[in-house]
Amino acid sequence: MNILGMQTLFAKEVRRFMRVPGQTVLSPLISTTLYFIVFGYSLSSRVQTVEGTPYLHFIVPGLVFLGIANNAFLNSSSSLFITKIQGTVVDLLVSPLGPGELMAGFIGGAMVRGLIVGGLTWAVAGMFTGFSLEHAWVAAWFLLLSSYVFSVLGMLAAIWAEKFEQINFFPTFVMLPLTFLGGVFYSVRELPSPWNAISLFNPMVYMVEGLRYGMLGRSSFPPLTGAAILAGVAVVATALTYGVLRSGYKMKA
Amino acid sequence: MSTPALELQGLTKRYGDFTALHSLDLTIRPGEIFALLGPNGAGKTTMIGSVCGLVKKTAGTIRVFGQDLDKDPVSPRYEIGLVPQEINFDPFFSVAESLRIQLGFYGRRRDDARIDEVLTALNLQAKKDAMTRALSGGMKRRLLIAKALVHKPRLVFLDEPTAGVDVELRRDLWTYVRKLAAEGTTIVLTTHYLEEAEELADRVGIINEGRLLMVEDKATLLRRFGERRVVVTFEHPQAAMPEAGRRFSARLSEDGRTLTYVEREGCAPSGELLRALYAEGQPIADVETRHSRLEDVLIEILRGRPQAA
Predict the structure, then answer these.
(1) What class, spelled out in words, does domain B6-222 have in CATH?
(2) CATH number at B227-291
């Protein structure tokens, strides 16, 4: 195994997004913080509690998840896609980096960015609401695995995409609706029928609720369900990405 | 016999109905400079891409220093360096950082002395800390070459390495390539500058429409397919073809001033023609000779000239 090659790719990925922190860290942090201020303060006067939790506190785990998922996905997808567009993917394909090393480098870098943005979002929210971490291990599981899953999905999107329009397809048409309808700003239990039943098919719901359990100690669903769904998605996405990279699909002529 | 640097057996690449490579067989000896020549779309880059992991072959076997890429597609790549045809660069990094990253990809620790050595050889030392996006086109090409060589590969593919670079770099690169070959590095070169292949190559392969037409030592190729054109200028215009010219199937110009004789392998030497002209008492003012270059030979072969004996 090419450990040094993998470490080099990981370090390169981290350095790449740290070269433009305004774009990769500050900008998403501001967006997520604005969600917190606009939604939190505008709605908290009318929706004072959700299932017994103050509304401002209730939305924090979802916003942290939003920061992690979006940025982990965007980092791996944009970085790999750009290497294809600018031709530097040649450096990766010619060098002795197998699918495992490529995944570790890109996913590791994307997880770091996702966790930085998620962590900073939590820090900003904590200044308004105070910090709450009821089940640290559960929170850690959901934080780490969420960042991992969306990093892998970002890689898959980048491998598949051939045009800029295609690389924007997932965040715009898949992730954004699923996240916003995934209980970040409300409890899906409180939705009217049939929307509450339909929401149960959205995997984001269980991820957000799992993190909510870890941070606030309460959740609409058993955290084990969310943990299992997240682990299942992680295993499937990992196997799929590894297989696709190994086959050379859309990476080699 | 030492293990070949590269061995291709039945290498085939199809894109749908189009066959880019037709069952290529080729052996590259360790330490040689091999020039792969052919027109655009002949299959040169597809062949190189198949070896370097950029192209998925349809059939055939590729061995790099004896290691079968089907059995182990990753390990042999430690030994390979590629200068791709298209310029690419990562705008987030400086020249030195790009080379450090390249070393790391090949499992090598940071080695600033090696980076300085390569940058100096390619006249890029002054740009060591410049961001890659600030480099001129020619400098970006130099950086590509530096990236391909920095990890000291034993097999280097130079896919049109001097396209768009100035004469000075071309000469610098030639010197460096000769030095690498002398140190035992195997070089596979494609180029549109046939002067480059003529200057550097030990052996030449000619490929067209995905078929390897010929592999030959450069000197043998030039001898077998080359020709020497001898142009004799007379002191006075000739009214008719001199008898010696007729015997040697030479050609008299319309104004009768010059006689041209094309000497190929198997033909009578041009010296005999000159002796016969002197013997006839023809007053000769000047004799000019021109040897074929690789370019002429390539054109001849691609036009399908039958092989000389």
Answers:
(1) alpha beta
(2) 3.30.70.100
